[in-house]
Design goal:
With 430 residues, the protein is of the alpha/beta class. Helices cover 39% and strands 19% of the residues. α1 packs antiparallel against α2 and α2 packs across α5. The two termini are 31 Å apart.
Length: 430
């Protein structure tokens, strides 16, 4: 084993990468090539083990909520806070957290993992707890259809040693949970929604379905998002008790992510640290992960960044953030990290923007987005494929109005870089 030398080299590569504004995962790639088992040797020593969070939508925000709740309960948590959710991204984050001998000052690791790359991760490390959020169409050029994505998530669940927490409203994940619950020693728990809210979260198969679906009995859930409380609050049912929380997070989907996080944290915490009222109160302190309903202030005006990357996520974003009184921009790229296939835009209904219009459309696929809006009778004021120019115009031409930008992943990164020249912008989730 060459742990001190490997870590020293990795730290040096990371320092150089920072100076050159290089990719956050590259130092992890270097370390992975030199010592493929370093990650496992370090993380397998943690007293509370490793937690994996995966699924199509909500990984970054849910991971941030879980990390902050565990820290609020006194645990020392390592997480891949660079936002890179591949194995090499985890390694890159680890380089900042360990000393040269590979000692990590943490009780537990909570890791957001891309569905496909999580399968590589579990070959190295078996998670003690896993949270699976949902299965939706996303990046068809990478994942294909949803059954393939579900098969990847099933492999993660099957490798988990202690607890699986998953979404009772997702039929594929529910079936997986029931199979594992009856077939072994894995404890399976669910998070869910009340009947009133469940209709707002259709499965991927239901997005364009016209036939009446039959009611399927749902398993009981340890945490249920029961109702919304104005202006930014929610009521949760946990066991036999009901709790109300008010949030800095915005967006209905983030409240559902909070229910998932609560269900997971309740299974992680030892009994002497578990206090449901304390956990719900801690939710009010959690701020949005970067780009996920993040709110900035530019020239005294509020600006919201809302990440959209698939039909379900875009539909929920449009529902969660009303268009009235807000200047709206949409920025869509088709780089590898976004997925090259933009056909999913046609599975999003943009009718809610019809009465208010869209002030700016930008990104590499600006004209594809503008065409989609045209067929929903949504008026577009301006189109520009240059994100910097589009952002400059958007900010300058609508002074005094709150603003919102719906953006794909790489468009969000580029916009945040430009916005960082104007205001303080958080670099990564902390």
């Amino acid at each position: 084993m060459f742990t001190p030398l490997t870590i020293a080299l990795g730290k040096s590569v990371k320092a150089v990468a920072r100076l050159r504004h290089g990719g956050s995962a590259f130092p992890g790639l270097v370390v992975e090539k030199l010592d493929p088992h370093l990650l496992a040797r370090i993380l397998n020593r943690l007293p509370h083990g490793v937690v994996v969070i995966s699924g199509t939508n909500g990984k970054t925000t849910t991971t941030k909520i879980v990390v902050e709740l565990l820290r609020a309960c006194g645990l020392k948590v390592f997480t891949n806070d660079t936002g890179s959710n591949f194995v090499r991204g985890v390694l890159a984050s680890l380089l900042d957290a360990v000393d040269l001998r590979g000692n990590l000052d943490a009780d537990i690791a909570v890791l957001e993992l891309d569905e496909a790359h999580a399968v590589r991760f579990i070959e190295l490390i078996r998670p003690r707890h896993t949270l699976l959020l949902n299965v939706m169409r996303d990046q068809l050029d990478r994942f294909g259809e949803v059954d393939y994505t579900a098969s990847l998530l099933a492999k993660i669940a099957e490798a988990t040693t202690t607890t699986l927490v998953t979404n009772r409203h997702d039929s594929r994940l529910r079936a997986l949970g029931e199979r594992l619950r009856t077939g072994g020693d894995l404890a399976v728990h669910y998070f869910g929604l009340s009947d009133q809210l469940a209709v707002l979260f259709p499965e991927d198969d239901q997005l364009r379905a016209t036939a009446t679906t039959t009611h399927t009995p749902l398993p009981s859930a340890s945490v249920i998002l029961e109702a919304l409380v104005e202006p930014h609050g929610a009521r949760f049912c946990i066991g036999e008790e009901t709790y109300e929380a008010h949030f800095q997070l915005q967006g209905l989907y983030n409240l559902f992510n909070a229910a998932a996080a609560l269900a997971l944290v309740r299974e992680i915490l030892p009994e002497h640290l578990l206090n449901d009222a304390h956990l719900v109160a801690a939710l009010s302190q959690v701020r949005a992960a970067f780009g996920r309903g993040e709110t900035l202030t530019i020239n005294g005006d509020r600006l919201e960044l809302v990440l959209v990357k698939n039909p379900a996520g875009f539909r929920l974003a449009l529902t969660s953030f009303p268009a009235a009184g807000v200047a709206t921009m949409i920025a869509i790229n088709d780089a590898h990290a976004d997925g090259r296939d933009m056909s999913w835009l046609w599975d999003v209904d943009f009718d809610v923007l019809r009465d208010h219009g869209v002030e700016m459309v930008s990104g590499i696929r600006a004209y594809d987005m503008a065409l989609r809006l045209y067929y929903n009778d949504v008026e577009v004021d301006k189109i520009s494929t240059d994100l910097r120019d589009a952002l400059t115009d958007f900010l300058a031409e609508h002074p005094g109005r709150p603003k919102r930008i719906f953006c794909s992943y790489t468009a969000m990164l580029a916009l945040r870089k430009h916005l960082g020249e104007l205001t303080d912008v958080e670099v990564a989730i902390k």
